[in-house]
Amino acid sequence: MIVLNETIEEQTFICIPRAYETNVLLVLENETTNGKTNIIPGVDIVDDNYYISAVFDLKEDNFYNITISYGDDVIFKDKVFCTNQVVYDINKNVYTSDTSYNNEYITI
Prior knowledge:
By secondary structure, the chain is mainly beta. The protein has a single domain, classed as Immunoglobulins (Immunoglobulin-like). Helix content is about 0%, strand content about 45%. The protein has no helices and eight strands. The chain starts with a strand and ends in a 26-residue tail after the last strand.
């Protein structure tokens, strides 16, 4: 799920599509009203990451379906949740590696 804010500024999210195309159409569908918005986003491809940038017309506390297509082919589908709350990474600094020992072993 993609989390975006209710803002008039450009927002960016990262996804992994089925095909890495730059001339795509993004369709944003509100799950409550079934209203659809067609957007031609900016696309950047960096190290197999697909960055989508656009100005989204979102309302807070609503869910949206997002579909990115290239021609007749759908290359990405996901859900979007719009919130203005700060989203925390619950796994941040949870996993740390212990380097107090060496990882050598003896086989006989």
